[in-house]
C-alpha cells in the first residue's frame, strides 16, 4: 500500500524515473479539502470506497473532484508498483530462486485456507470451551469486562484458529485486523482499523461502534441468509479477511464496514442501554446458526497491540476505553444461552497490557472491588501438525531432512525450500532487511544485535532457560518466535521455550555462521548470565561446553564446499571423526584414537 509518507520520501527518486510525478503529487496536496478526506487518501483507494461514497454525500463540493482524484491516485499507485518491480528486478536479476518479501503475503494467504491438521487433542474444541466458559460467567460485579486474550508466538496459527471457530464450530466471528498500516502479513489490515486506532478515542466512541456493529450485523446477516446457502459464519469470516483480489467478497466487506462507520456517528447509538438493545435484536439471527455452544458471537481484534499506541487526554489508551465500552454487553440473566465475548490477539498480547499483572493494570481499583480478568489462552498445539503419520512414513536420515519443513510450527510447510531459511531468519530476528543481507552472505557490517536477538539465535539451537520474570521472556515471544508455555494466575511469570524446530535451528545456524555476528551473540550470552536473564548456565561451564560443540559442528559444515548451495546445509549429518577433529584438533584426535584403540582392543 502506498502511503503519503512513502510518496514524500521517494519523490526525488520518482521524479528522475517518471516525468510528471511531482505534478501528480501537487494536485493531491493542493486539492484536498477536510482533514478526514486527507487521511482517507493516505491509504489505498479501493479499501476506502464506502468511506468515499459517504463523504461525497456529507461534504459539499467534493463529489465533482472525486473522479479526478481517484484516477490520479490509481495512476500513482500503478507507477509506484512499476518502480518497485523494476528495483526488485535490478536487485535479483534472473535469479528466480529469490522470492521478494512482497510474496510473503501470497504464501501466507495460500496457507491460510489449507485443511488444518490437528495433532493430539483438538485445540479448536479446547479454545471454544475456554471462550464459552468465559462468556457464561460474565457478570459486571465479578469480571471487569467480557474479553479474554489469545497469545502465542508468530507462526503458530492464531488467526487461523479464529477461522476454524467460524467455519467448523459455526460461531459468528467478527474479525478485525488492527495490524499497523504498511506492515506485512495476512490477513490484511481491516477497513475499519483506522476508525478504531488512528486517533485517541473515549468510551463513548467505542460504545457507538458496538451499537452500530450489532445493528449492521443483524441487517447484513439477514441478507446473507437469503443470498448464500452454505454456513453463514464461515462465509462471513471469509468476507472479513478478503482483500482487493477477492473482488466479490471484498465488495461485501467494504459494504459491511462502510455501513458500520456511517451508523457510528448516529447520536442514537450513545443512549444508555443501546448496546444491550441492539444485541438482543441480533439474537434471533444467532439462533439459526448450527452452533451447540452458548457462545454465539466473538468480536476478535487481531494484532491488537495498536490499541495501546494512543493515549486520550485522561492518560488512558484506546484499549482501556474499548474494554470500558465492552462492560455494557448484556450478561447471562438477559441473554440466556446467547453469549458474546471479545478477544484480543497478539504475539504475546503484550500480556502486561491485555492481561496485565494486577499492580500494572490502570484499573487496579477494580481488583479491590473483587473484579477479575479472564485468563489468556495460549495452548495452540500445532507443532508438527504437517508431518505425515509415522506408520505412513519410513523415517531415515534422508527422509527426515526432506521433511524438515513439516516439522515445528505449520507456517514452514507453506514456504518454498529456496526461500524458507531467509523467511525464518527474518522471523527470528524480526528484521526482513537484515535477514536478506545475512542469507546472501554479504560481507557488510550487519545490525548490532539486541540482547533478545542474541538469545533468539542461540536459543533456537541450544536450550536456554530464560528468567520467568524478565522482560526478555516477553519480548522473545512477541518478536522472536519463542513459544509461551505457561502464564501464572497473577500474570507476572511466563514460562517460555524454543521447542525442537529444525527450520528455526537451520536459520539460526546461518546467522551464527556470519563472521561478524558470532562475537555479538557470545557477548549477549555473557551479559544475560551476569544479569540473571539466562538462569541455567551451569556451575561447571555446561553452557560454554554446548556452545563449543556447536562451533565445532559449524566448522565441519563450513569446510564442506559441496554444501554451500544447499538450503539446509546446517542440517546435514557429519561423522563423529569429523566432529572430534574440529572439536579438539586433528592431531589430538589421532592421539586419543590411538589410546582408545590400545585400551579397548
Automatic annotation (TrEMBL):
Q: Supply the alphabetized keyword list.
A: Coiled coil
Q: Which residues form a coiled coil?
A: 4-31
| Name the record gives this protein | 4592_t:CDS:1
